[in-house]
## 1
Amino acid sequence: MASAAEEVLQCFGHVDILINNAGISYRGTILETDIQVHKQVMDINYFGAVALTKALLPSMVQRRSGHIAVVSSVQGKIAIPFRSAYAASKHATQAFFDCLRAEVEQFGIEVSVFSPGYIRTNLSVNAVTGNGSNYNVLDKNTAEGRDPHDIAMVMLNCMSRKKKDVLLAGVLPTLAVYFRTLCPSLFFIIMASRARKERKLKDS
């Protein structure tokens, strides 16, 4: 990341807008997932964005200008069963960039965190499973997700208005985020029920 950032700065002199968008998803149970898979997901989703941001941040601070964005997920705000590695990486991402926003405000640098729901991409197909192999399934929710171009345009619009934290999810995921905060005990019961149902479907 450091060498890539250095090459970009040598070519263009500075970066006005950095969008951290690389990511990998995960499907599996905590009990059956190798620790290396957790590390792999964290390395890409969290440390990748952190490393690139830190590599370019000094130049933004020096210019007292810049906008840093990261594509997190609604799962950076709530966690659902069988997505532990992914949700953990997105929670960490949310926390890091919330801290960064506060620390660089004095330098005139903007930080935006985008938390989309399902987007119509190959994210689920390329997801890793508990043993590190590819999931190779296009989930129904992903297939019916929002168009990536639409999400990109909304992001650009929000960045132009210097929005700091943007939830780009449907009604149910958005309600779940508030539900998790306002009534956590009931939210946990619902998630446990969901886990049992998904486990039955996989075992049947």
Note: The helical segments are 2-12, 35-63, 84-104, 140-143, 148-160, 171-182, 184-203.
## 2
Amino acid sequence: VPLEAAMLQPLPMEELFSAPANQYVLPILGETPSGEPPDPKKCSPREYLEFYIFPVLLPGLAALLHEAEKEKCFEGKRTKFIPSDFLTEWLYNKNPKRKDESFTELFSIPFVKDWLKDRPRPPTPLSVLLSEEEASILIQSFWRGYRVRCDSEIQELRQWQKKLREERHITEVVKKFWTKQEAK
């Protein structure tokens, strides 16, 4: 079933409005209802949704679903795709008031900058950022390094290097070297 066709199905809105739900079929994506737009401060919730919210939001939701499909979000794995970020960026850039302005990335949007100043995000975990292949390479390289460091000959070499560093005061020699370099 195409995405647009799925979006045009009636919504169960009995709880929100007194009229039967079958009267509330969503408009075609991007199309505003015919007739003159009602006064946004005096119209009913239904009219407000049909004239002011759905014509803007539905194309954004359709774009969100297409992007989520591209990012393979429906495969059951964790992804780095954040739907609210995508929708915020999409709605901001498709705003008719910004018609002639260039594309703005999410973190360059003024209200997003202000929001993140007060509420910084935690860093994204590596498990989300790395592909399975990249993660397996990291794990394998760590394991190989660990196994090599356990080897008796390597242990002996490391002990010898440690002793050499202590006898020759290598850390102080390096500090003096960098002090001279910074003075130049």
Note: Residues 11-24 have pLDDT under 50 and may be disordered.
## 3
Amino acid sequence: ILLLIRNPKDVATSFYHFSNGFSPLPSYETWDDFFTAFMTKKMAWGCYFEYLSQWNKYAADENVMTITYEELKEKPVLGVKNIADFFGISLTEEELQSVVERSSFQSMKNNSLKTHGTFGNVLFRKGGVSDWKNLFSEDQNEKMDKAFEEHLGGTKLGTKLKYDVYCKA
């Protein structure tokens, strides 16, 4: 199992834009309204912290490889190589480069009309790291950090996310 996780602040930011762009989901007039819903577990797909907490039970299993979105953005070649190794897939250098190029966010966004139709415009917005800084207030940042520590502090997934988000990205 490949478990891809992401900075909860960027998850919230991305889901805010996704919710407002996808009519079957509730939309939010303001970021503050969305943030309150996100932090009080009123999201269509549940609480991201609880999701990570559940996956943390399996994080040490040999059949589970955890990788962060931030890790893949920072070092895509190494990330794809590690994923291929985990699944026992041997790639030539040419195949490795092809996978890296074709799986980049920009490549997927450019091909989204073919792969996802008009829904691609909703799925592929920016694909960046740390876009949360454009929305979060200082108070919201502190609340998110506190929730992160309460749910994931000292766990394997929490430690990995914290390292990749705060130390590497």
Note: The domain at 2-165 is CATH 3.40.50.300 (Rossmann fold).
